Amino acid sequence: MTQSLSLAERVRAGDARAMARAISLIEDEAESAAAVVRDIFPHTGRTYLIGITGPPGAGKSTLVDRLVTETRRASETVGVIAVDPTSPYTGGAVLGDRLRMQAHAQDPDVFIRSMATRGHMGGLARATSDAALVLDASGKSLVIIETVGVGQDEVDIVRTADISVVVLVPGTGDDVQALKAGIMEIADIFVVNKSDREGADRMVTSIESNLALQHFADGEWRPPILKTEATTGHGVPELWATIKAFRAHSEGTRARRLKARNEFRLRDLLTHRFMEHVEKHLMSPSEFEALVDRIAKRDVDPYTAASDILSKVLKPGAGSREPGTGNTQK
Predict the structure, then answer these.
(1) Is there a single domain that holds both residue 150 and residue 68?
(2) What does the pLDDT look like over 185-222, one tens digit per residue?
(3) Number of folded domains in the chain?
(4) Host H or E run for residue 97
(5) How far apart are CA 115 and CA 130, in angstroms?
(6) Residues 310, 314, 319, 320: is their CA dihedral positive or negative?
(7) Domain that holds residue 309
């Protein structure tokens, strides 16, 4: 009898059920998730990651739906990760984005997954990068990541995707607020969606005025400004063409961007693992809470408290128990 394939092997074969299972393990931070990522990682790095970000109500989901249609016409295989708000009742994603993309549900070359932020700031779920690796390993040529839409703090996307598309919408009543530096600096392409609304041309002018304050060297990519109507598909072919133009233009610098992305991911993972180690192996919840209370009472300053915790980590033999082994070395 032929030995059954491992989860990682099924992911690499493009098995949709295996892909969904792997992403669920990653989201739940299951112990087996690291093993799955470890097994698929050598087979990743080929997918082009497109980040779609912008404030709530900009029509990002509808635009992604239209963009998927456009990329499928070009015979691209596509994965979509839609980062949704977390349900206050289940802790899972509010599946609004996936509901909007039902037109692609029967297409075997399109895989759509909603992920909950679970309180992670920056517009992306903590597990988004690893979920993108799953889609990469499965052979998807493109992965589109749509952020939750939390406003100008959505800067994590530039550390996750190969290209960042910032979607704005006219008629919000505060164009200047939408164009503050945080979101201006991450854009490779600006899209003014719902461009049939009054104020679209004013929004384009505002973006152009902000870009005019920046210096672009000869040959450097200057973010173009496109107008779209996602509900009708107007302007989406031009958006897809511009994404391809940016990809060709930035091919020589992609390795540098990939290195920066991996550095950010490693630092984020180390930070998360460090706190997990402290909370599981060095300090009980009551001890940590007591230390926070001491800081609040001004009995100890935060720097000293952090140094005390770090000294416990650096103490020989401290916290050497491996998760799940039940063994502690002293």
Answers:
(1) yes
(2) 789 999 999 999 999 999 999 899 888 988 899 999 99
(3) 2
(4) helix 96-100
(5) 12
(6) positive
(7) 260-314
The sign of the torsion formed by the CA atoms of 263, 240, 224, 215 equals: positive
Count of residues making up the chain: 330
**Which residues touch 96 (CB under 8 Å, ≥6 apart)?**
61, 84
In this prediction, residue 324 carries a pLDDT of: 41
230 lies in the same domain as 128: yes
Asked if the structure places residue 323 within a domain, the reply is no
What pTM, to 2 d.p., does this model score? 0.83
Q: Which segments in the chain show pLDDT lower than 70?
A: 1-3, 85-101, 117-126, 149-155, 172-182, 316-330
CATH of the domain at 70: 3.40.50.300
Strand arrangement, sheet containing 142-146? 110-116, 78-84, 142-146, 48-53, 163-168, 189-192, 225-227
Pick the closest to residue 236 from 155, 144, 172, 118 (CA basis).
Answer: 144
Measured CA distances, 253 to 98, 246, 247, 248, 249 (Å): 33, 11, 10, 10, 9
